[in-house]
């Protein structure tokens, strides 16, 4: 099973993707069609990542869409790039082709009506646009990104809402070499052009229902339309505290699966070599799944999925349990059913739950998109929730920005 590393503001997470069968050797490089589906004549793209064939060097694609820029380590922090890497997309409805080498941890960034500012620190380390730092030069810029990896095995890409929802919706279409074969075309619809407004409406409605600060996640200047909506993982950056929110759910889970109370037994399908493992709460108050023990997670642990009991380590079994356990808590499915991963019909059906994630999925035209770190968790044979495309024989890869003409396949 292949692994792909994605970077989020809250940490690094590995996604496991089933090996693919394909008849042709993966390309050393690939053309990507970038389509302007906005109403703006001033849209820019940026391609960043780690160059696999250059010993992991940091790489950006230059403004012409084909030449590569390998930054050198600067002598000072926050130094400007030495090359122009803003790729103009042309007027609405136009397509711009860019050429990329094999890249790991890649991102395709888009901005509308203003260019993005990327900076360099010694290393070189690329300082990417931040939605959490109000002094960041991009704080007031309308931008978004999709994530991808192109390596010797396959192209893997996804749309991400792990950190925020942008006013620039992104859609993905991947056409494989095996034209006419089943599933030869994969499409992730993204949101329509009003996607962010609908997300904000949902957050405001949820805040009215439960009194939690979902509405404070909306980044908006007085008299202007919302610029973005942050994930509750980053609520502290905008004064939205969710402290204590998930603790009642955790207490309910611990009571339900308590051995002392002769409670139910959960079963976690690791979907890996350890198989399906039974779980229950011991007399010591620890959740024991197989041979792994888990302390009670806090709200911050559940929202971020990478702290407290969800820190990964050398145990393959534990590393397989964590995504499924964390996802079941984020989705409020753990107290509802005993078998996990569970069917999507069990997701977000009660409080407390990550309603940001629920709303994101409801607004996406096909219901797909990474709304939290382990949103790729699904039952065996289940429908993907994560908004990913992947193939070992990519032929045409289209990334559309703006949401106009967005459709479901």
From TrEMBL:
<protein>
    <recommendedName>
        <fullName>GH64 domain-containing protein</fullName>
    </recommendedName>
</protein>
<dbReference type="Pfam" id="PF16483">
    <property type="entry name" value="Glyco_hydro_64"/>
</dbReference>
<dbReference type="InterPro" id="IPR032477">
    <property type="entry name" value="Glyco_hydro_64"/>
</dbReference>
<dbReference type="InterPro" id="IPR042517">
    <property type="entry name" value="Glyco_hydro_64_N_2"/>
</dbReference>
<feature type="domain" description="GH64">
    <location>
        <begin position="23"/>
        <end position="403"/>
    </location>
</feature>
<dbReference type="InterPro" id="IPR037398">
    <property type="entry name" value="Glyco_hydro_64_fam"/>
</dbReference>
<dbReference type="InterPro" id="IPR037176">
    <property type="entry name" value="Osmotin/thaumatin-like_sf"/>
</dbReference>
